[in-house]
Amino acid sequence: MPRPARRIPAPRAMIVAPQPEAVEAGTAVLAAGGNAMDAVVACALTQGVVDPMMCGIGGLGVITLHDPRTGTQVVFDGLSPCPAGAHADMWSNLFERECADGYGFVLRGAVNEMGRTAVTVPSILRTFADAHAAHGRMPWSSLFEGAIACSRDGWMVRPHVHTMMAMDETAYGRVNTSEKLKLTEDGARLYLRADGTPKRPGDRVVNPELAATLATIARDGADAFYTGEIARRIAADMAAHGGLITEADLAAVRSRRVAPLRVPYRGRTLVLPPPPAGGVFVGEVLRILEHSDLPPMGHNSAAMVAVLAEAMKIAGIDNDTHVGDPDFVPVPLDLLLGDAHAAAAAARIRAGERADLTRVGGEPKGTTTISCVDADGLVVSVTHTLGVPSGVVVPGLGFMLNGAMNWYDPRPGRATSIAPGKRRYSSMSPLIVMEGATPVATLGAPGGAWIGVALAQVLVNLLDFGMGLQEAVLAPRVSATSATLDISLRVPRATEAALAAQGYAVKRVPTTYAFAGVHGIAMWDGVLEGAADPQRDGYAAGVA
Questions:
Q1: Measured between alpha carbons, how far is 133 from 139 in angstroms, rounded to an integer?
Q2: How many folded domains does the chain comprise?
Q3: How does DSSP classify residue 519?
Q4: Could you tell me if 29 and 159 lie in one domain?
Q5: Is 415 part of any domain?
Q6: What separation in angstroms does the CA of 421 have from each of 186, 253, 279, 418?
């Protein structure tokens, strides 16, 4: 029998994100005549309500955008800076080791990831406001309806939210989120059961304080957060508990419009966010891989995985050594992304050399992403995060503050050492794939140190192996962010055995889908195809 004909109109606009309520908020804005920027802001604000350990207005993020009116791409950098009161050696005597997964540092007392001292100056709301002022269509105040409704009326804890609240982080050297939720009275009331354990799937969270905060920002704009009453309350809470952030720090927050990295790969161009965001890692991995013909090796064969792993390790070593905030340290992009460096790295891989990515001692997975394309061709991809949740909910405001000081190296003299105003390297890398002047795909991912390795593999699946986008996202992945090669449960056991025989330390993880949660939209020939990673709870929604 012939395949049944499609009975629904092909979508002219689409949005994808890891949370169903957030997708609904973005879809409602698209259906009401909003563009991709409007939808992304509405979606992101709702994410901060329903995934409060992952993201929110107390966090940081990056936006990559293609403007069809001008045919140009731009990055809005909202990576949060250290407070002005921070200095390079303030925690040098507390250093113990790197987190076992290579992203973050273990300090005595966990002062860099829990409590007021762990908070960098929140920057994501200013970034959303500036990007919306430049590219949005609907009024700012109209973008808050979904987020306010979820806060006011409540939302249901889902499996992934519960996992983030209850997971054991001690193996990595981090404090469990369940302990952080006990830090403030408001955090405990919102997210813990009466017995002190995190709320479970099916439990509800009602947050009228956050609804009121969002209503204030909807009415008065982002200035309410950075120079108004919200700023005064954040600064007062910091001063009362030994935090570093002041009203002056908040008032000084500015987003940055910067030129993206443009990295060639297999005849296309990858548009990636520059340092201190993570596009340089994705770009370097693919520049190295371009010197190998991967399909004849076989997808996820031992030969392919070994080449992929070595490219990841080389790029990881280069990032650890060279990449930080370019305002403070020179980042040799021409070297890292250049032809000679990529060719030399590929030659070492072919010669059988092994890169040594040994750690001193998982990046936190507290991140989320959105991709959106509208009927006019505006493409917006954003990844935003709390880094790790600090546990700090300022009384009466309803939102968690970031714990992104965890990302800074407490040892002075390094590319990512602490300095006032310094932005920390982040693996976040919302990206756009261009064929000539035409965008053909956009991707982003939550997943900490796994973001870059996951995005690189999905791009290989898409551009080398010709998979559809959802197939490319679903395919089993591997990760090489340390000396151990992690492989997901569905990588063939014959591949594992062959890699072990080659001398690799291989660890098979016990989850069906692993290593970041890639979401995206493909746009070849004007046909929109959304892809949502089944690790999370979201989906892609089209609007006709």
A1: 9
A2: 2
A3: E
A4: yes
A5: no
A6: 29, 10, 21, 9
Q: Rg of the chain over CA atoms, in angstroms?
A: 22
State phi, psi for 418 to the nearest 5 degrees: -70, 140
The CA-atom distances, in angstroms, between 141 and each of 37, 138, 225, 339 are 14, 8, 14, 47
Residue 62 has which token pair? 């990056």
227 and 279: one domain? no
Q: 237: number of CA atoms within 13 Å, CB side?
A: 19
402/419 Cα distance (integer angstroms): 18
Helix, strand, or coil (residue 316): helix
In a domain, 110, yes or no: yes
Read off the tokens for 516.
């970041």
Report the CATH number that the domain containing residue 306 is assigned in CATH. 1.10.246.130
Residues labelled as active-site residues: 367
* Predicted pLDDT at 146: 98
- The pLDDT score that the predictor gives to residue 424 is 81
Strands (E), 374-481: 379-387, 389-393, 400-402, 431-435, 438-444, 478-479
Highest mean pLDDT, choosing among 136-140, 321-325, 447-451: 136-140
Q: Do 323 and 286 belong to one domain?
A: yes
The residue whose two tokens read 């190998």 is 292
> With helix as H, strand as E and coil as C, how does 381-408 read?
EEEEEEECEEEEECCCCCCEEECHHHHC
- Asked, for residue 539, whether it belongs to a domain, the answer is no
Residues 152 and 172 in one domain: yes
Same domain, 223 and 278: no
Contact 260, 74 (CB under 8 A): yes
276, 212: one domain: no
Report helix angle 450-463 to 302-322, nearest 10. 140
Confidence label for 365 from pLDDT (cuts 50, 70 and 90): low
pLDDT in tens, 2-54: 667 667 788 999 999 999 999 999 999 999 999 999 999 999 999 999 999 99
On whether the CB atoms of residues 369 and 382 are closer than 8 A, the answer is yes
DSSP 516: -
Cα distances (angstroms) measured from residue 366 to each of 61, 247, 335:
12, 26, 31
Q: Are 324 and 210 members of one domain? A: no
CA atoms within 13 A on the CB side of 418: 27
Taking only the tens place, the pLDDT of each residue in 304-313 is 999 999 999 9
Strand locations in 430-518, DSSP E? 431-435, 438-444, 478-479, 485-487, 506-508
Residues 6+ apart with CB under 8 A from 380: 36, 37, 39, 40, 63, 64, 65, 66, 135, 370, 371, 372, 373, 442
Residue 371 lies in a domain: no
Three-class DSSP category at 180: helix
Gap between the Cα atoms of 295 and 266, Å rounded: 13
Quote the pLDDT of residue 167: 85
Do 311 and 289 reside in the same domain of the chain?
yes
Element (H, E) at 200: none
Domain of 145? 13-58+78-255+384-407
Residue 500 near residue 515, CB atoms below 8 Å? no
